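Need residues for this backbone.
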């Protein structure tokens, strides 16, 4: 099925040039376990590029009159090359987040944590409040530095109360039917607070 989608006969990039479009619903209905590794990769990339909000599960698709489709066969080869370049120096491990932090904690380490927003839906993963407590505990005890971005909520402010915090105003667009929603993002960290000079210099 996906060979007609991608026109794949080998792993070489020129094989992508022969792609033909397919409906996302047909790709979703195709069981990944029935496909080869390359076909699964092609299926995943097509669906992921087209899915609203970049969701891996519960994907939805639509059209717009203000921009082009995100999947473009003529730029696909460059997209893959760009992704390869960005990940060339990256090691990807499938471990529990706490194990990752403990494994790589060094005085020079910087951990960026982007946990699910507290009391929101749509992530499709279980992340109880005990995880936030554990994250706050690790941030206070590790050798390296940690940055945590999370939504504004009294429970979140309480659990991370021992950390430094920066408030960021922004507009949330994913799932808003094209209508931005004003929100506040909280960025916590275990960096040391620096003293600010008196007067106007302290504003910057």
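Answer:
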């Amino acid at each position: 099925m996906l060979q007609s989608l991608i026109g794949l006969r080998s792993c070489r990039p020129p094989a992508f040039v022969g792609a033909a479009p397919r409906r996302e619903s047909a790709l979703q209905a195709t069981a990944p376990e029935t496909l080869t590794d390359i076909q699964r990769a092609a299926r995943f990339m097509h669906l992921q590029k087209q899915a609203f909000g970049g969701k891996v599960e519960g994907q939805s698709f639509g059209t717009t009159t203000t921009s082009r489709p995100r999947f473009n066969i003529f730029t696909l080869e460059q997209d893959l090359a760009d992704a390869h370049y960005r990940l060339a120096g990256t090691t990807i491990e499938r471990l529990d987040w706490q194990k990752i932090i403990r494994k790589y904690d060094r005085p020079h380490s910087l951990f960026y944590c982007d946990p699910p927003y507290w009391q929101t839906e749509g992530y499709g993963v279980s992340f109880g409040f005990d995880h936030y407590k554990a994250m706050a505990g690790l941030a206070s005890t590790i050798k390296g530095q940690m940055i945590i971005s999370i939504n504004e909520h009294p429970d979140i402010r309480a659990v991370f109360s021992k950390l430094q915090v920066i408030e960021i105003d922004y507009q949330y667009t994913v799932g808003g039917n094209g209508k931005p929603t004003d929100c506040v993002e909280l960025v916590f960290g275990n960096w040391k607070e620096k003293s600010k000079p008196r007067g106007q210099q302290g504003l910057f």
